[in-house]
From TrEMBL:
<dbReference type="InterPro" id="IPR020843">
    <property type="entry name" value="ER"/>
</dbReference>
<protein>
    <submittedName>
        <fullName>Zinc-binding dehydrogenase</fullName>
    </submittedName>
</protein>
<dbReference type="GO" id="GO:0016628">
    <property type="term" value="F:oxidoreductase activity, acting on the CH-CH group of donors, NAD or NADP as acceptor"/>
</dbReference>
<feature type="domain" description="Enoyl reductase (ER)">
    <location>
        <begin position="15"/>
        <end position="334"/>
    </location>
</feature>
<dbReference type="InterPro" id="IPR011032">
    <property type="entry name" value="GroES-like_sf"/>
</dbReference>
<dbReference type="InterPro" id="IPR041694">
    <property type="entry name" value="ADH_N_2"/>
</dbReference>
<dbReference type="Pfam" id="PF16884">
    <property type="entry name" value="ADH_N_2"/>
</dbReference>
<dbReference type="Pfam" id="PF00107">
    <property type="entry name" value="ADH_zinc_N"/>
</dbReference>
<dbReference type="InterPro" id="IPR045010">
    <property type="entry name" value="MDR_fam"/>
</dbReference>
<dbReference type="InterPro" id="IPR036291">
    <property type="entry name" value="NAD(P)-bd_dom_sf"/>
</dbReference>
<dbReference type="InterPro" id="IPR013149">
    <property type="entry name" value="ADH-like_C"/>
</dbReference>
<keyword id="KW-0560">Oxidoreductase</keyword>
């Protein structure tokens, strides 16, 4: 028998998650049956969508039930195999969640090539975040050469890829991030302009950075950042809505005047396209192209990536809480194995 350690949802958070919302357990795994493999988790991806899965509110995916293991993509090593498709020692992309080991059906796993790229990139630039950036920007944003693309949370795995793909496509990339270290990193990546959303004159700096207006705004944040962006959108502007992390921990409606009528008026008068999306909508159509294009851009140095690696599964709750507060720098992964 193999003993696994897992982190489960102990209670649903009210507002920002706390360590009390998580519980660590150990349990014994059964032997893998026919068509199954025993996995040892090497890396666990932490992503903002997990906050929504901790809530019982209706969403695009089933919530994690209290007592269930927290969800999450992983890179794992095959320890035992009862499938002809995978062998001991293979490295795979899985959905093991926040746990050290799992028995899983081989057909649900994707074999990775450790010689092609660091395996952790399957959780970042060559995985779900990278594909989210690629599909949302190119399918909905459709940036044209010379247009201005603005992206919030621009040092995150999605935002940084959005800005760099925009540059590959000949557009002008403007990044929004928090703090001088993140601002400096975006300049290293070649963003045409970078604005610190913590600056007291953020809205004025943003307006100065987009003299020709904004053609594409890749929405990751919402809140005050979005309020500064929306008046600057051009006619026929496109807004792929990927995330709204500024409101994930909200417990009520925002204070102040109702801005929705003004926003709806802008959608009408400027002929804006505002489209929410989940990257899984585009997998069948675009994932093969994504792997080809993004792998090539990374190999050529046209798209760079940054990983924020935290050691040890026990540190996952605190790292996750910090990510929701913007404390991570780059793609947040837990090194489990």
């Amino acid at each position: 028998m193999v003993e696994s350690t897992r982190i489960v949802l102990a209670s649903r958070p009210e507002g920002a998650p706390t360590p009390a919302n998580f519980r660590t357990e150990t349990y014994e795994l059964p032997e893998p049956a026919d068509g199954q493999v025993l996995l040892r988790t090497l890396y666990l991806s932490l992503d903002p969508y997990m906050r929504g899965r901790m809530s019982a509110a209706k969403s695009y995916a089933k919530p994690v039930e209290v007592g269930e293991v927290m969800v999450g993509q992983t890179v794992a090593e095959v320890l035992e195999s009862n499938s002809p498709d995978l062998a001991k020692g293979d490295v795979v992309l899985a959905n093991s969640g926040w746990q050290t080991h799992q028995v899983a059906p081989a057909k649900a796993l994707r074999k990775l090539d450790p010689g092609a790229a660091p395996v952790s990139t399957a959780l970042g630039v060559l995985g779900m975040p990278g594909f989210t950036a690629y599909s949302g920007l190119l399918k909905i944003g459709n940036p044209r050469p010379g247009e201005t693309v603005v992206v919030a949370a621009a040092t995150g795995p999605v935002g940084s890829a959005v800005g760099q793909i925009a540059k590959v496509k000949g557009a002008r990339a403007v990044g929004i991030a928090g703090g001088p270290r993140k601002v400096a990193y975006l300049r290293e990546l070649g963003f045409d302009a970078v604005i610190d959303h913590r600056a007291p004159d953020f809205a004025e700096q943003l307006r100065a950075a987009v003299p020709d207006g904004i053609d594409v705004y890749f929405e990751n944040v919402g809140g005050a950042v979005a309020e500064a962006v929306y008046p600057l959108l051009n006619t026929f502007g496109r807004v792929p809505v990927c995330g709204l992390i500024a409101s994930y921990n909200a417990t009520g409606a925002p204070t102040g005047p109702d801005r929705l009528p003004g926003f709806m008026r802008s959608i009408l008068t400027k002929s804006l396209t505002v489209r929410g999306f989940i990257m899984s909508e585009f997998v069948d159509e675009m994932f093969g192209d994504f792997l080809r294009d993004m792998s090539g851009w990374v190999a050529e140095g046209r798209v760079r990536y940054l990983e924020d690696v935290v050691e040890g599964l026990p540190n996952a709750p605190e790292a996750f809480i910090g990510m929701l507060e913007g404390r991570n720098f780059g793609k947040l992964v837990i090194k489990v194995g």
